Amino acid sequence: MDVKVLGISGSPRRHGNTETLLDSFLEGTKEGGAESRKVILRDLNIVPCRGCNVCHKDGTCILRDDLETVFDTILSVDILAVASPIYTMGITAETKALIDRSQYLWARKYKLKTLYFSREHIQRHKGLFISTAGQGWDYVFNAAFPAMTAFFDVMGFEYYDNIIANDMDRYGGIRGHPTALTEAREKGKKVVEQVRKLQGTESESDQQHHE
Ligand SMILES: Cc1cc2nc3c(=O)[nH]c(=O)nc-3n(C[C@H](O)[C@H](O)[C@H](O)COP(=O)(O)O)c2cc1C
Fold first, then answer.
1. Total domains in the fold of the chain
2. Residues 100-127: pLDDT tens digits?
């Protein structure tokens, strides 16, 4: 079975620091033999959650836009990388819109109890947060982590790792960073290998089960 990877770019700037870091990660996943694709939120027709709470009753979202396909794709992949630069100490509006719109799945999971991910499923599905920030503060990403934790939890992904690079202003952008792009590429290759190993274990135990 092919390992499937989705990279979601939540930066409004095309080919900027964050999307470039995401691209390196995706290249690494391809080197690892995965089938990888990228979605650019800025180019999609997306509206934010309206808080109508209809999903709390029937588990569906009343909004019809490009996020319907994005959520279907997320649920079909093994590795999900969400990339957002830090905007005013948090994630971008595009990324937050995506996360808030997963509320219909939150409702299925926690209110209606019609959606359940097994421990094995979560272990086999890896989520990564990719980010860049202008300032050099260590804590500049701190406000973004809880939103990512909540999102990966709702989507059935283990929050596997962060690929983050601060101090972009000093480095003159991600290409001036001494290690970030190489590390992103290596992490991409490594996570694919790890998921493939887990999938191998699963098919072996399935075979034993059927014997
Ligand atoms: C509206 C806006 C708000 C920003 N807020 C912060 C911030 O709070 N802290 C920080 O370190 N950098 C901040 N930055 C800088 C970006 O995080 C940084 O330049 C990042 O690498 C941009 O990524 P991109 O090239 O993918 O757009 C901000 C940039 C913009 C445009």
1. 1
2. 999 999 999 999 999 999 999 999 999 9
